[in-house]
Design brief:
By secondary structure, this protein is α+β, with helices and mostly antiparallel strands. The chain has a domain at 5-245: ATPase, nucleotide binding domain (Nucleotidyltransferase, domain 5, 2-Layer Sandwich), CATH 3.30.420. The protein has helices at 49-67, 109-127, 136-146, 150-156, 164-172, 182-185, 200-206, 244-251, 309-317, 327-333, 372-398, 415-425, 437-449, 456-460, 475-492; strands at residues 5-11, 15-21, 27-34, 46-47, 74-81, 86-90, 100-101, 159-163, 179-181, 191-192, 197-198, 215-217, 220-225, 237-243, 260-264, 268-275, 286-293, 296-305, 342-344, 362-364, 405-408, 429-432, 465-469. A seven-stranded mixed beta sheet has the order 17-18-16-15-21-22-23. Strands 3-2-1-5-14-13 form a six-stranded mixed beta sheet, with helices on both faces. A hairpin with a 3-residue loop joins strand 15 and strand 16 (268-275).
């Protein structure tokens, strides 16, 4: 009997990760290929879509080579994507007309302010989202208004728009399929989550032609086969697709209402499964689609931290305080505390629960005795504080008690950070054996899509615990630290307001 392998592909903000899993859903190989970040102006962030496509092929190719497997044994591929990042490309030539505008990009902040004043409540009700430059819709509008001939070509039906999943699937299928799934579509600020269709009123308001947009499919089904001439000689079904954080929720097998996970990466994202209920948050969490399977839609509450791992990368690349991320754990443990130094890494504003796009990064409490170790420790602690703020709001707005948090992503390897996180939350933090749960979730969805799993319980049995962190900090200490953190955040807010 031939072996069976499954590919989970995570196209993220800083790179593309390919996982290969065997029939027991154990990890066989994993490869990440990074791509370049472009910052043409302050607050602008872009990616080169062609480079992303090349790096995707490279990651999958290297993962296959590393696994030493026969490509005939690969059953399917599932894809997750970085979310709101969006691009426009020529339908006939396949050439992007501009770089992909990344989710962190703030160029449409003023347009978002205007739209929010006029249409904020309508968009919130229809899409579950708060009007913000974070989401894809205003990025598409910006390209249509600022790139020569873009609007004219779009009206003629010569241009198509899509998030990164749409771009990769279009490339993998040789241009045969232009699609996205419900979860990714719910991050664009154009999907009506009650009807699960592109919202004509919003599209008209933003002057975005609907014919540019992809077809919306469930998150698990056979969409199309890869074209071997375009994609590494592979002729396999693309059968799973989801936005990264929802893929991680799926990969963590958070299938019941009240299950919660946080993914630590460039940013930090907490999602809570709310089942078939649409829950609106008065405190600024987003209401989003977790996944669509068959004709059933599962919803989630979503709280995002823009800057998490990116703050560690900043210490390394911009300040030269560390030579690699692993060093942060040693430095953080070398001091008893931060010496009352707090770092609010609001490089791109603050997301939930503040939604302050004019907040900026602040390090406060520095004295003559402050060392590199204090700043590094404050950076790690800032990630935990931000996650704690979201958890508090999630409890409040959902009315659901949360007893444990599942965590995944690269920074979960940092034992100092995970212990501090459990201490600040006051509940256990569980780390799975496979921490790349975004790609794992994409692979699980693809397995479900081809019928490898017949139900979610079969997937649930595959989840394995690597380590549990129990809280050890006294409550009085926790309260004191959180109070100081809130004070620091106040200092960072509204700094860049015009």
């Amino acid at each position: 009997m031939s072996k069976k392998y499954f590919i989970g592909l995570d196209q993220g903000t800083t790179g593309t990760t390919a996982l290969i899993l065997d029939e027991n859903w154990d990890l066989v190989s994993q490869v990440t290929c990074e791509h370049k970040q472009y910052y043409p102006k302050p607050g602008w962030v872009e990616h080169d879509p062609i480079e992303i496509w090349e790096k995707t092929k490279e990651a999958v190719s290297k993962a296959i080579t590393k696994a030493k497997i026969d490509i005939k044994d690969i059953r399917t591929i599932g894809i997750d994507n970085q979310g709101e990042t969006v691009l426009l490309w020529d339908k006939n030539t396949g050439v992007p007309i501009y770089n992909a505008i990344v989710w962190q990009d703030r160029r449409s902040s003023e347009a978002a302010d205007e739209l929010k004043d006029e249409w904020g409540d309508i968009i919130r009700e229809k899409t579950g989202l708060i009007v913000d430059s974070y989401f894809s819709a205003l990025k598409i509008k910006w390209i249509l208004e600022n790139i020569e001939s873009a609007r004219e070509k779009a009206e003629k039906g010569e241009l198509i728009a899509g998030t990164i999943d749409s771009w990769l699937i279009w490339k993998m299928t040789g241009g045969r399929l232009h699609m996205t799934d419900y979860s990714t579509a719910s991050r664009t600020m154009m999907l009506n989550i009650h009807e699960c269709k592109w919202d004509k009123d919003i599209l008209n308001k933003l002057e975005i032609p609907e014919k540019m947009l992809p077809v919306i499919n469930p998150s698990a089904m056979v969409y199309e086969y890869t074209d071997p001439t375009c994609f590494l000689d592979l002729h396999i079904p693309i059968a799973g697709n989801a936005v990264d954080q929802q893929a991680a929720l799926f990969g963590q097998t958070c299938f019941e209402a009240g299950n919660i996970k946080t993914t630590y990466g460039t940013g930090c994202f907490m999602l809570m499964n709310t089942g078939d209920k649409i829950i609106y948050s008065p405190n600024g969490l987003l209401t989003t689609i977790a996944w669509g399977i068959g004709d059933k839609i599962t919803f989630a509450l979503d709280g995002g931290v823009y800057i998490a791992g990116a703050a560690i990368k900043w210490l390394q690349d911009s300040l030269g305080l560390i030579s690699d991320a692993a060093e942060t754990e040693v430095l953080a443990n070398s001091v008893e505390d931060t010496g009352d130094v707090y770092f609010v890494p609001a490089f791109a504003g603050l997301a939930a629960p503040y939604w302050d796009q004019y907040a900026r990064g602040t390090i406060i409490g520095i004295t003559g005795g402050t060392t590199k170790s204090h700043i590094v420790r404050a950076t790690l602690e800032s990630i935990a504080f931000q996650v704690n703020e979201i958890l508090k709001v999630m409890r409040e707005d959902s009315g659901i008690s949360i007893d444990v948090m599942r965590a995944d992503g690269g920074p979960t390897n940092n034992k100092f950070l995970m212990q501090f996180q459990a201490d600040i939350l006051g509940i256990p933090v569980d780390i799975p054996v496979i921490s790349e749960t975004t790609a794992l979730g994409a692979a699980y969805l693809a397995g479900l899509g081809i019928g490898e799993f017949s139900n979610l319980n079969e997937i649930k049995k595959k989840w394995k615990l690597a380590k549990r962190y129990e809280p050890k900090m006294p409550e009085s200490r926790r309260d004191y630290l959180c109070e100081r953190w809130e004070k620091a955040v106040e200092r960072a807010r509204n700094w860049a307001e015009k």
